[in-house]
Amino acid sequence: MASSAAGDATPSSADGTWRGPGFSEFVGLVALMMGLTAVTIDSFLPAFPAIQRDFAVADPNRLQLLIYVYMLGFGIAQLAYGPVSDGIGRRPALIAGIAIYLAGSVLAMLAPSFDILLLARAVQGVGGAAGRVLAVAIVRDRYDGRDMARVMSFCMMVFLIVPILAPSMGGALLLAGSWHLIFAAMLVLALVNLAWFGWRMPETLHPAFRRPLDARAVGGGIALTLTTRTSFGYATALGLLTGCIMGYVGSAQAVFDTGLYQLGPLFPVAFALIAGAMGVATLINARLVRRLGMRRLAHAGTLGLWVTTCLQLAVMLALGGKPPLALLILTLACCQFLLSFAMPNFNALAMEPLAAIAGTASSFIGFYTTLLAAFCGLLVGQSFDGTVIPLAVGYCALSSACLGVVLWTERGRLFGVGAVVPPAR
């Protein structure tokens, strides 16, 4: 169904030719669909002190709930978007999701209390889930194998530029006015996404792969995902590594801004330096994946991350959890660099065997990995004690678990070029 070149695989007109955007525009549009979540999370971090002051939130760790309730809505809603899009198509499902996101953004702008703001964030998560699920499904509709991994890497590269810029954007909006302007910016970005997608992206779901909207079909798709060893294993590994990122994002404001290092307006700079390492790694991955393959790069990144997190934990313990700022930024940037070789390839490896149920599979994998990541990230973030030791412990524990899961998935064989993994456990 898919091909290595954009525009050859999925018919979008009666004569079977592709009428959608070219490769670069396709990557940009899909990256925007994915990037809306990064903007929704990361641009919001500098606003924590203002929100704490406006709503008289006594416990600063409670502000992290603004991230995790979003992730909860984001994770649960993903169960719906995939099966729905497998039945009615990608376009109407995404448009519905953006409409929900817009409603959540308006509610957040008008929130009279912290509890209502939490509710608004959950609604945003429910709507934002559409972009995550359908971006992956649309890529899977159009590409397979190493070409799919290459497209996902480019999408991730653009997507990872957002965390570099988003906190600075949020800080600039705070200088111009209140934190409500950040939600206004989210609203505008979602409208741009809706207009661009509606204008340029045709339906990518091949008619032959439409599935009925019934519980048996959805359950069968989920069961197939769970019993496909490659898909379940790499989805679990992806969730664990995403948990590292969520733990870091949840802790970042307390560590860099108002807590340990008191950076204040310089917080976005530290955040950008660490996020920038992810963007560089993803670009390198996109250039190498067609030549070296997904497994080699993913396994190298996983092993490197495990070694680095073990060393990081030892150093942080030796320094009492309060290292020099430059050392912390360096070690975290190294961790983010290495996990960025694994994550896009984990996602592609998990989806590769599931072309016939791409929407349902992307939906369930997104649900599973998001909730796993949010749970792990919440444990790490809520453990903040004024030092970086909880963050270092979280990275080390999650990367160790990830390595174990990859070994289980590959039956103990790493770096297997073209390794064939049996489709069921």
Automatic annotation (TrEMBL):
<feature type="transmembrane region" description="Helical">
    <location>
        <begin position="26"/>
        <end position="51"/>
    </location>
</feature>
<feature type="transmembrane region" description="Helical">
    <location>
        <begin position="325"/>
        <end position="342"/>
    </location>
</feature>
<keyword id="KW-1133">Transmembrane helix</keyword>
<feature type="domain" description="Major facilitator superfamily (MFS) profile">
    <location>
        <begin position="23"/>
        <end position="412"/>
    </location>
</feature>
<dbReference type="InterPro" id="IPR036259">
    <property type="entry name" value="MFS_trans_sf"/>
</dbReference>
<feature type="transmembrane region" description="Helical">
    <location>
        <begin position="181"/>
        <end position="199"/>
    </location>
</feature>
<dbReference type="InterPro" id="IPR011701">
    <property type="entry name" value="MFS"/>
</dbReference>
<feature type="transmembrane region" description="Helical">
    <location>
        <begin position="151"/>
        <end position="175"/>
    </location>
</feature>
<feature type="transmembrane region" description="Helical">
    <location>
        <begin position="118"/>
        <end position="139"/>
    </location>
</feature>
<feature type="transmembrane region" description="Helical">
    <location>
        <begin position="63"/>
        <end position="81"/>
    </location>
</feature>
<dbReference type="Pfam" id="PF07690">
    <property type="entry name" value="MFS_1"/>
</dbReference>
<protein>
    <submittedName>
        <fullName>Bicyclomycin resistance protein</fullName>
    </submittedName>
</protein>
<keyword id="KW-0472">Membrane</keyword>
<keyword id="KW-0812">Transmembrane</keyword>
<feature type="transmembrane region" description="Helical">
    <location>
        <begin position="232"/>
        <end position="254"/>
    </location>
</feature>
<feature type="transmembrane region" description="Helical">
    <location>
        <begin position="266"/>
        <end position="285"/>
    </location>
</feature>
<dbReference type="InterPro" id="IPR020846">
    <property type="entry name" value="MFS_dom"/>
</dbReference>
<feature type="transmembrane region" description="Helical">
    <location>
        <begin position="297"/>
        <end position="319"/>
    </location>
</feature>
<feature type="transmembrane region" description="Helical">
    <location>
        <begin position="387"/>
        <end position="408"/>
    </location>
</feature>
<feature type="transmembrane region" description="Helical">
    <location>
        <begin position="93"/>
        <end position="112"/>
    </location>
</feature>
<feature type="transmembrane region" description="Helical">
    <location>
        <begin position="354"/>
        <end position="381"/>
    </location>
</feature>
<keyword id="KW-0813">Transport</keyword>
